[in-house]
Amino acid sequence: MDFLINCPGKVDSSNPNPVKKWLPDLAWASVLKLIEIEGFEAIANQIGKEASKRFEDWYNEDRPEDVALPGDYRGLENEYFKKLLVIRTLRPDRMTTALTKFFTKALPNGTAFTECDSSLGALGILQAAFKDTSPVVPLYFILSPGANPIKDVEELCKTQNPPINLKTSFHLVSLGQGQEENAFARLELGHKEGHWVML
């Protein structure tokens, strides 16, 4: 799991990339860390020598997550989590799609997790997520650049029974340098008075 998340690898001039023509040096460095994991001891040799052309063909696939790995690693189709390690190493650009495929296969009713928001708008998703919160279970937003959930949160405030007063019971604090005291004060007030605080 640590390898999947962090994909360690540092370019090492003492072990140069033998397939520089098609594989970036950082990916080769990650391959050299992957061989430390049981079951992947021979993958550097296969990529660099024995099955280089077949790995290059796999690497150049539009959707490599849907194509069996070459050679000794073909069987990873039945151990998709392990295949994720190879995808993370060689084609990190395909991880989002590969993870979606993994969750769909690995979890009971996996599509419920990968397609759960496809029929809802932003406010609908927020309302569904809000059902899982409580005064001690906050809601976290993981945002992409340009996303701004403030308007949807304000709309959610209005739908509560009784509605949350946006002027007195909803506190929006833009975090930045020097805002720690203000944020802690709002959190303390929210805790005491039952207000909503959005950081």
Q: How would you describe this structure in keywords?
A:
mainly alpha, two-stranded parallel ribbon, 199 residues
Write up what this structure looks like:
With 199 residues, the protein is mostly helical. It folds into 2 domains: 2-114, no CATH class; 122-198, no CATH class. The protein has 10 helices and 2 strands, in the order H-H-H-H-H-H-H-H-H-E-H-E. A two-stranded parallel sheet has the order 1-2. 15% of the residues are buried. The mean pLDDT is 91.
Describe the secondary-structure layout.
Layout: H1 2-6, H2 25-34, H3 43-50, H4 52-59, H5 80-90, H6 95-106, H7 111-114, H8 122-130, H9 150-158, E1 170-172, H10 180-193, E2 196-198
Parallel strand pairs: 1-2
Helix pairs in contact: 2-5, 3-4, 5-6, 8-9
Provide the spatial order of strands within the biggest beta sheet: 1-2
Mean pLDDT: 91
Element order, helices and strands?
Answer: HHHHHHHHHEHE
Structural class: mainly alpha
End-to-end Cα distance, whole Å, is 30 Å
Report the oligomer.
single chain
Largest sheet: 2 strands, parallel
Concise structural overview:
The protein is mostly helical and 199 residues long. The chain is 45% helix and 3% strand. Helix 3 (43-50) packs across helix 4 and helix 8 crosses helix 9 (150-158).
